[in-house]
Design a protein that fits this description.
125 residues; mainly alpha; 4 helices
């Protein structure tokens, strides 16, 4: 657990860089996309941007409870499943499986609900 937060915060920083790069790339290729594909990419980038900010804020709540660490792990897993599925579907990337996007979204929702619960719990740090 010594490296938990450095790894989490490093991944979050990569998400931030990915948001900027993907948004810039989207602006260069948006003319070649139909409205459904553009919407999927925009949704994935928006979800990644929003959760990047949330992860940065939660990552500064040290020391964190076990429940808060679970929230962070669920958000990372949910982002990978949700965003990768949307990106892979539009850009024809490998390991595309369309059922992973809803699963990723559900995992993100569970993470948010657990964050709400964590506000009321007094866990041992």
């Amino acid at each position: 657990m010594k490296y938990f937060w450095p790894v989490i915060n490093s991944l979050t920083a990569l998400y931030g860089a990915a948001v900027v790069g993907l948004a810039a790339a989207l602006m260069h290729v948006w003319n070649g996309l139909d409205s459904n594909d553009f919407g999927r990419l925009l949704s994935a980038i928006s979800m990644l941007a929003f959760h990047t900010l949330a992860l940065l804020i939660v990552g500064r709540q040290l020391p964190a409870s076990k429940l808060l660490k679970l929230v962070v792990l669920l958000w990372h897993l949910g982002l990978w499943l949700f965003c990768w599925t949307l990106f892979a579907g539009v850009l024809t990337l490998p390991l595309y499986y369309s059922a992973l996007a809803p699963l990723g979204g559900q995992i993100l929702i569970i993470g948010w609900l657990l964050l709400g619960i964590s506000a009321w719990r007094k866990d041992v740090k």
